[in-house]
Structure formats: structure tokens, C-alpha cells
Amino acid sequence: MKRIRLLLTLRPAQCVTLCFLLLTLVVNAQIPPNAFNYSAVAHNAAGQPIASSTIGIQITILKTSPLGASQYSENHFVNTDAYGLFNLVIGAGAVQSGSMSTIDWSNDNYYLKVGMDAAGGTNFLVMGTTQLLSVPYAMYAKNAGGFGGLPVPTVTTNAVTEITSNHAKFGGVISGVNANYIGEKGIVISQTPNPTIQNPLNYLLPAGDSIGAYDVNDFAYYYNIMGGPYLTPNTTYYVRAYATTENNITFYGNEVSFTTLGVGQIGTGGGIVFFDKGNSAGGWQYLEVATSDQSTGISWGCQVGPTGPTAYGLGVGSTNTSLIVGTCNEVNFAAKLCDNLSLGGQTDWFLPSACELKLAIQANSQVAQDLQASVYWTSSTETNSVMAYSLVNGSQYAQLRSNLFHVRAIRAF
User: Fold this and answer.
1) Which CATH architecture has domain 154-259?
2) Nearest-CA neighbor of 160 among 146, 170, 147, 150?
3) Distant-in-sequence contacts of 371-374, Cβ < 8 A, 24+ apart
4) For residue range 341-363, what is the model confidence (pLDDT) as tens digits?
5) pTM over 0.85
6) Fewest C-beta atoms under 10 Å: which of 69, 96, 336, 394?
7) How far is it, in rounded angstroms, from Cα 326 to Cα 307?
8) Over residues 29-58, mean pLDDT
9) Which residues pair with 245 in a beta bridge?
10) Mean of the pLDDT values across residues 321-332?
11) DSSP E strand stretches across 217-373
């Protein structure tokens, strides 16, 4: 970490109400190439710290001279500590004009202008302007073509998929460097824009130390949620992939935002939405589950024919149901009951796979308590001729197909 002390020349009129006595710019190589840390101490006209208060700060980067053209401007609203100290990340505020990513730090002089509103508003009073005598290293290196000859990785954040009320699937891609150059990769997620690994309020989801594509907080085998925090329903999150090099410099991908499902969100068939695939590939994006049982005691049905057992995973329940109905000639059974269902003006309901039904429980939907209280058939089968999968208290068990269990239909839209 490199610290640069910046003494600002203040006009007397500015110190009538408040002033900055000393600013300290902190350049930390572990933050994004388009951002750097900034720390300062705020004082009032009497020289006392503006302690434990929310203040407004405006940061402007000028080119060529203290009166030069603005290249970038952003606002922050930060809290001071008991000594008047506050911290922020330049490049992560509310952008007012320009773009940090378009500044070529290698071909001109740049100046930092700081404004403050001690009342926490946007009536910024200019505190002073000073030259950035040492360009943030990671930002300069990005324009100059590397870190003293070292490669710069390219990091891309994937679209967020498989969204429920409390989980999602995140991913990224790292390229442009050798695998042994990456010390750690992963996803950082926050409820505020531009998440970084430095912010302890962010969720950090590491995913190894290689290059190429990766996913984290995945549904693994879909039913077995692996690692990561539980997300909050009906909440917008901001996600960035990151890669930290072996010399401890962190790069970030593009920011992606998504919103978790609300608990009890209603689908187009009147059911409870419990899954958002994140895209409409295959003709559907959401899964909803009926709000009540279609049966409290019905058999699974007969053995599926020579095409083999029905599948377990996500997005296969409809195909499973069609396969079972097309194979079995019994009068009434679980898959046929769902296939014939007309509910909420929709007729495309089906018997869920084991993965899909378990996901409805894990998504904290309003029907989760019902689904955990009884034994439910799924459209997934084992490899022998007499068994099929059921869910008992949210856990998967193989049962005789002739057993009479509950049925709860779902649909995709």
C-alpha cells in the first residue's frame, strides 16, 4: 500500500464554516483498476473534527491543470468516525459525469478537486484542488499495457441465473494470463453497486485459483445448495467476478445486477413462483408451484418403457411427465393427474422432478411447510422397475410405485 499526503490550500472564506486540514490518499493495489481508496479528516471552522456525522463529498478529477477540464465527477455520502475520519473509494461513488475507465493516466497531469457538504447534502463547498503526483499504479498499468511487463487478466462477470428468493448462481471468466498467475478468483456480491473484496459488508465467494470459466454458490446437484450466504427475498444485488494475481493485485469484471424473488410472488397460473432461471432459453424462465395438493393419496404409476428411467434434474419435470403418461396405461396416477390439471387458466402443469420439488422447498416459498409435512411423489425414477423417488420432509427417498402419496403440480412459464 502506498500513502500520499495531500495538503490543500484553502481560501479563507471556506474555513469560516468548515475545512479539511489534511487529506491522505491511499492507493491500494488490491482494489479495482478503475478505483482507488481515499481517506480524509473533516474539521469545522473551530478546528474541531466533524465527528460521527454523515457528510456529502464530491470528487472531481481534472486534466492538465487545477483549472482544467473535468474528466470525472462523483458524489459520496459517508459517515465520519469519532475523529472526523472518513473513507471512500474514488471510482465507486454516484457518477455525475465522465468515466474513470476512459482516463488515460499515462499521458497527462491530473488533479483532484474535493468538495464537501458538512450537512450531508449536495451543497458542496470546494475544499481545494491538488495534483495527483503519483498516479494509482494499477490504473496507470492498465493504460500502459501491464504491470511492468506483467500480464493483465481480463475478467468477465456472467449473467446471474437460477435465482430463487434466497439463492442464485454466479459465474465469471478469466482469460489473457497463465493459470499460475492467478492466486484466487471468485464473485463478490453486495446490495450496493461496485462491490469489492475490501468491503466487509460484501459477500465474498472464492472459486479456486485457475483461469477459464467458473461458477460459485451453484446448486451443485441442484438439490444440494453448496456454500455461500442466504440471500434476502425481493432484494436487488450487485455482482462482480474478480481475480487476484499471485502478486496480490485484484481485477474486477463488469457489474451485473439481479433481484431475488419475493416470497409468495404469484405466477401466471396462480401458483407461487419459486425459481427464476435468469433467461427465457427453452421457452420458459420461471417455475411456479400450485398452492394446494392435487391429491393426498395416489400411486406413482407403471414402469417407464425401454427409453429408460425419467431424469432427476432441473427443467426436466415436463418431459418426465410426458414420458410417464405416454408409457403408462393405468386409469389414474400421479403424472396423469398433473398432466390433466387445469388451474389458474393454465393447462401445462406437470409432476415435478425430485430436483424441482426440493427446490420449491429450499426457496422458502409459502408452500414449503406443506411440502415438508407430507410425502410427495416426484416424476423421477430409480433404475429398477418398482421404485420411484419421493420427497419426505424435503429429503429424497426411493419408494414402491404402488404407494399412495401426495401430489403437488408445478409449471414453467
Assistant:
1) Sandwich (2.60)
2) 170
3) 371/408, 374/293, 374/296, 374/405, 374/406
4) 999 999 999 999 998 998 888 77
5) no
6) 69
7) 12
8) 77
9) 182
10) 90
11) 236-245, 250-252, 256-259, 272-276, 286-289, 295-298
Which residue is listed with cell 420461471? Answer: 286
Quick check: do 2-144 and 154-259 share a fold? yes
d(CA 303, CA 310): 10
DSSP category for residue 283: G
- pLDDT confidence bin for 364, thresholds 50/70/90: low
Question: Buried b vs exposed e over 117-147: b needs ≥16 C-beta within 10 Å?
Answer: bbeeeeebbebbbbebeebbbbbebbebeeb
* Sequence-ordered list of residues with C-beta below 8 angstroms from that of 75, at least 6 positions apart, any chain: 56, 57, 58, 59, 93, 94, 96, 122
Supply the pLDDT for residue 8.
37
pLDDT of residue 202: 62
Torsions phi, psi for 311 (to 5 deg):
-85, 165
Supply the Cα-derived Rg of the chain in whole angstroms.
28
The CATH number that domain 2-144 falls under is 2.60.40
C-alpha dihedral, 46 to 51 to 57 to 60, nearest 10° = 70
Partners of 43 in beta bridges: 19, 49
DSSP assignment, residue 332?
A: S
Residue 72 in this model has a pLDDT that exceeds 50: yes
Burial of 355 (0-12, 13-18, 19+ CB in 10 A): buried
Task: Write the single-letter amino acid at 338.
Answer: C
Q: How far is CA 247 from CA 16, 147, 150, 152, in A?
A: 46, 10, 10, 12
* Region 142-150 average pLDDT: 53
Tallying the residues shown for the chain, one arrives at: 413
Domain ranges of the chain: 2-144, 154-259, 272-412
Cα angle for residues 149, 154, 160 (degrees, 5° grid): 160
Is-contact 196 32, C-beta < 8 A? yes
pLDDT category at 390 given cuts 50, 70, 90 is very high
Q: Which pLDDT does position 150 carry in this prediction?
A: 60
Residue 179 pLDDT grade (very low, low, confident, very high; cuts 50, 70, 90): confident
Cell numbers describing residue 239: 455482482
